[in-house]
Each structure stands twice: as C-alpha cells, then as structure tokens.
Amino acid sequence: MLAALMLLSGCASVTPEPVGGPELLRQSGLDRAFAARGVAPIGGPVSLDEAMARALKYNLDRRGRMMEEAVAMNLLATSKYDMLPKLLAAAGYRHRNSDATTRAVDSVTGAPSLANPFISSEREHTVSDLGLTWNLLDFGLSYVAAKQNADRRLIAAERRRKAMHLLMQDVRTAFWRTASAQKLRATIRDSIVMAEGALADARQAEAERLRSPIDSLRYQRQVLENLRLLEGIDQELASARIELANFINAPLSHDLIVVEPAEQLSSAILEQSVEALELRAIANNADLREQHYNARIAHAETRKVMLRMFPNLNLNAGLKYDTDKYLVNNQWSETGAQISFNLFNLLSMPAQQRLADSGVALADQRRVTAQMAILAQVHLARLHYGNALQQFRRADAIWNVDERINQHGANRAQTQTQSKLEKVSNNTTAILSLLRRYQALALAHAAASKLQAVLGMEPAVANQVGLPLDQLTAAIGSALRHENQFGTPPPAPAAAPAAAPATLEP
Prior knowledge:
Helix content: 55-70%
InterPro entries: TolC-like
Keywords: Cell outer membrane, Membrane, Transmembrane, Transmembrane beta strand
GO molecular function, one term: porin activity
Number of strands: 10
Organism: Massilia glaciei
Subcellular location: Cell outer membrane
C-alpha cells in the first residue's frame, strides 16, 4: 500500500515541461553538426555526376530511408530468435511470519494421525531453477512471422529504391535550373541595368517633349514589360541554387557553382519496343515488387490462421534447487509435456479464415491494380520523354535563332543604327529563349528519370554509399553516360572493383 501511494503521488506531481528557447538553440546546433558530419567539403565546381553522388551519399532523406531498412533488417534478425526454445533461469527468496504447519488424518477413520501439527517448510528459504521450455505452436507461428518480416525487409528496400529514384529526378531538375541561373545571372543583370537606363531616357524625353506623348508612353510600357520579364526570370532562378544545395546536403550559404556535362540526351530508348519496356518494368518496378511482397505476407497470414487451429504442445525440462531443510531432496530435475487446445477456436475459425482470405484477395487486387497502373505509366513516361526531347530540340533551335538576332543587333548598336529599346528587346528575347531551352532540358531530364524509375533501373553503385566520393562520382558518371541504353553494360573497366563503372541494373 505504501508503494502504491508513493507511485500515485509521483504521477500526480508530473507537469508538462515545454521546450525553452535556449534548449531549442542548443539542440539545433547539435542537429546541424550531426547533419554535416562526414560530408566532404565542396572544393570547386560541381558536375552532374558529383551532384548525383553527393545526393546518394549525403542526402538526409535518403539516410532516413536507409535507417528504415536497417530497422527492418534488425526486426528480421530478432524474429529468428523467437523460434528457439525458452531457457529460463530464476531465483527467489521466500519468507513467512509463521511456520508452515500441517495436520494429517487417517484415511480410513478420519482421526488425527499425530497428536500435534508438524512443520513442513522453513520460514525463510531460497529457491532457484533452470528450465527449458519449447512450445511447438509458438515455433510454427514464429517461423511464419519471420518469413513475413523477411518480406517486410524487402519492402523497405523497395521503398528506399523508390525514394532514390525521386531524389535523382529532383537533383537533375535542380541542377539544370542552377546551371541556367548561373549562365543567365550576369546577362540578366546587365539587361536590367540597360533597361533601367532606357526607361530613364524615355522619361526624360517625355519631360522635355522631344517626341509625342503617346509614343513616349508606348516606349516606356515596352521597356517596363521587358523589365518585368527580366525580374521575373531573376526571381524564378534565385531559389535553384538553394534547392540543389539542400538535395546534396551542402551549406545553404555556399556559392554553389555547377559545370554542365557535355553529353546530350539520346532517343535510343524510344527505339525499343513498348513490349520490351513493359517486361522490364514488370520485373524491376519498385511499387510492383512491393505489392508482390505484400501479397506473400497476406498468404502467410492464412497459414498462421491454420496453425492456430492445431493443439498446443508444450515440452519442458528443468533443474531445481531449494534450501528448505525439511526437504529430503533439495536438488532435483523434472521433465514434462502438456497438450492443450482452446475449444473456442473451433467457433472462431470460420471468421478468422474469412478474414485471412479477404486479406489475400485485397493484396491480390492491389497487385493487379498496381501492375495495370505501371503498364500505363510505361506508355505515358515513354510518350512524355519523346515529347520532352522534341520540345528541347525545338527550344534549342529557337534559342540559336534568337541568339544570332541578338548578335546582329549588338553589331548594329555599335554603328548607332539601333535604339536602346530594340537592343533591350533583343536581349530579353534571347534570355527568354535560353531560359526556355534550359527549362526544356530540365523537363527532358526529369522525363528520362521518370521513365528510368518506372522501369526500375538505377546505377548499380546506388547502394554502395560507403565508397569514397570520388569513386562514387566516377561510377555514377559511367552509369549516366550509358543510361540512354537502360541497362546496356559499358566496356569492361580497368580500375579496381571498388571503383568499377556502374551500369543501370535493378
């Protein structure tokens, strides 16, 4: 009673303790240091290969997915021990305030066999035992549960693959947005300064009435429209560097500089038959493989229901020791077997079987639905990639024309045959064309990554995040150069196996 009162009084004294500002700041500093732990510093311009490698190696969301997979692996490892017998060691102390006295009577007459009660046990004694118990029903259920945990571990791996596909797609898009911002930054600022000067000249001409008011206002409106476009582009591209830095876990304040790769997108994948792509997606797609594992877990649940219908056989053996001096044998061993069955299981068996069967039907339906959806995604991703590739080529051609027009305009400006408005307009048009070219390029890379994700393909070194950054970068670069073939292996590498070039593999 005293212990219960102490426990109740302790619970009554618990009050909420909100986290204070100093504690938040201290923990924030520790979290930032933890996030930056082991991240190699950026020593120069970042290529697309290095950005991919840094994202795979240092991205915090990917680290979380890998930890989830590690938890699933540990759950599988611990579930294996549930199949072993239970070996229990126990020791105890017993005390009573009076002797354990016993009376005896004659079995025939019912008269007391002894005049006085006799003591059968000491007031204080210790007991200890070591017993081995094995429940065959628990063994069967534990075996099925371990098989289910093995499938859950595979599900965690497929979810990590899916998250990796999304990460690589985001890194590609952010990289090309950063490249466009880096290339257009100086040109945009020069054009804004030029437009501001042309606007000031137009306003001065209006004040001095050097031209008609309506022409002056139209001139100003065109300049202001160009300024609005230029400032909108500048604002749109301002966040690209921060997004890329976040994906590769780089300091957000770092002036990140990227290097554009020389390789261009290829249409080789579009030459493959849709049927071949469908077969590859069915074999390797992460979502579909996850549904297959869920179906296996549901089927295993039906086996657990059937196992519960069997009698429970319990085998035990143990060594015991008691210090009671009234015992003739203070140390002994005992073995036993016990079989039991819950008769109410017969009543619940039909309902449990229907529940398990409905779970299997649901898992099968989800698998079929996922397969049909993935087949549709293969067709859509292939179509989107073809359209994105065509749009990029068209945007590239338009940019080439606008850039040549801008160069001709610059030559005319040197001979004083072109107005500032025309020069600003030509610069703005060229900048917009270059921006649209980079946007089309980013969309094409995103479409390629989407098709790659639907087909379930990724660099073979994607799981080898323990490689040094330079080796991982080289391996990712080799895989990216051959990704348009989606699985066609590159030439045999001459480097060490740890740094071997990667192919796109499931």
